[in-house]
Amino acid sequence: MGTGSSILGADADWGETSLGDMPESCVAAVLLNLDPPEICQVACLNRAFRGAASADCVWAGKLPANYRYLAALAAAADDEGDGDGDGNVKPCSPISTKKGIYARLCRPTPFDGGTKEFWIEKNKGGLCMSISSKAMAITGIDDRRYWSHLVTEESRFIQPVFPSSPGSSAQTHGSSGLWN
């Protein structure tokens, strides 16, 4: 039962195996359990991991259920913003992989006349939304005793609204349609 008891004998050479010898499908099965930033880090290891990290089956589970609708909104926003200054719109190439769709949806996308933005949170894939005060129906929004519209460069939107007094309360109404 010592060193020479294997079937191949003591002098057999197995060769060296590495992570690159793993089938891409096995690597993809492991990547399904990782968060998107971890998947991108693992893709740097070798070709098998890079290929598995680009597989649609890995990224499909990271996208929200309504990703097709969100991707269409993002494509429309890209088409509106891709002009060359002379009114000519550059054609937008469709994103063909789920990894590409995920990457695009991680960038903020304005919609509804630029009064709202949505994006996917990079680490966990949660849907985030930012709504300007102009897009909300806030009770008493035009009453300067309760609300102040300030122009600032620090906000995503040009004119955010702030309560004028600490005791102010707001009621909002409406739906964005993104979570439907």
UniProtKB/TrEMBL annotation:
Biased composition regions of type Polar residues, renumbered to the chain: 165-180
SUPFAM superfamilies, sorted: F-box domain
InterPro entries xref list: F-box-like_dom_sf (IPR036047)
Region called Disordered, residue ranges: 161-180
Transmembrane parts of this sequence: none
Record protein name field: F-box domain-containing protein
